[in-house]
Every structure is written in structure tokens, then in C-alpha cells.
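User:
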Amino acid sequence: MALITSQITYYRSTSYSFEATVTPPAGLHTVTGLFTIKTDSYDDNATDSDAIVKKTVSAVSNVCTFNIAPSDIADSVDPGTYHYSIHMIMSDGNIYPFAAGKFILKATTTNRES
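Assistant: Predicted structure:
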């Protein structure tokens, strides 16, 4: 699998969904997708405990659907440029990088969620 690079722009207090469709090598299928947003593009934190967002979803027919809800990003996170990555866990147990890029968090006038 080749790493896909792109930018995601997210407006605070909105819902955002996207799909990651994998074409795995013969004999494998996608089991789980991992989506992470962090301040730095790289660090050595093995558990990503400092991540702004961590999402784990099950794949359906090699497609992972990720949903970002307003409550997923704390109001204390300042608008700005962050970094995201998507890794896929395959049926052989190996984890492969799938996509990475900039995650742009935009401010909105209203921050309340209810």
C-alpha cells in the first residue's frame, strides 16, 4: 500500500465523516482502522497518549468510516495546524501506514455544542 497524503480541514463544533478504502495485497483484508491527530508529525510516544483525537473503527469490506463529532475535539484545543495519520491493521496482524497529512482546525463563532 502506498501512503496517501492529504489535508483535512475541520470546523470546530461540526460533524465530519470520511472513508478510507483499502485495496489490500492478495490474501489479506482490512480488519481495523486507526485515526490519530497529534500536535507533532512524529514523536516516540508508543501509546499516543498525548493525541488530540484517537479513533479506532472496524473495517467493512476493506472500508473504514471515520466520524469526527464535536465532542471529539476538546474546546481547549486551539485552532491551528495539526498532523493526522491513518494506519490499517490487516488480517495478518501487521499494521500499515495508509494516509497522513495536515489537520487544519478552524475556529467558528459558536463553540457551544448544546
